[in-house]
Amino acid sequence: MLKKMMVLSCIASAMSFAQAQSREPAGVDMAPISGIVVGKVKYIPLAELSGGAKKMVEADLATNALGKNKAYAQIPEEAVVYRKNYLGNVRDVHEVKRNLTFTLADLSGSAFDAFKFEGVVPEGPTRTGPWSSVSRYFKTPDGLLLILHEWDFVGDGGGVVIVKDLMNTRVADTPARFVVKKSPSGAVVSELIWVTESKYYTFTVMGEVASGEDGKYNLAWMNALAATLK
Can you tell me the distance from the alpha carbon of 19 to that of 52, in angstroms, rounded to the nearest whole number? Predict the structure, then answer.
């Protein structure tokens, strides 16, 4: 089933849940992936992959969000436009909470309280719910757009396989993947991806985040924010 197989491609190429759910990546043979267990997270080395799945991960490893010699991953222009036009998809937060398969991460008392809450967008698996995938949108005081995405893979009947080689940072004690992407028009998006025992998280900043200590918004800032989730 695509639902059980897709998570590896999400880690490997940082596809959104909605994209992965709608179609299998063209030209990628997902069959060599084995050991996926519904409702569980499993870490494997790159050496255990083969075929198209291995090529996909190797291509993602070639992108380098850390250090001075940054190599950007690619993001389709439509994915950037979708995120920026979120207001057209925002739903009433109380309505969404009543129609979820899970409980949203508690942000009360976290650093997210300092940001303006822009709204919540349910993202699957159906238009009417119940929803197992949802994104919350925020803006910093200086207007930077932040997106916190949660996927209830357990409730959705999915399993997660994570390639150890792709993990290049941590959220508290959890291995994570930091990636910076660039669209054909030059728009830059920074993402932090990590998985707990019950949820698949993506924290997106609609702008470039420094991997070092330079700048107001850097990887340490993203890691610290992500670690405050309850």
Answer: 18
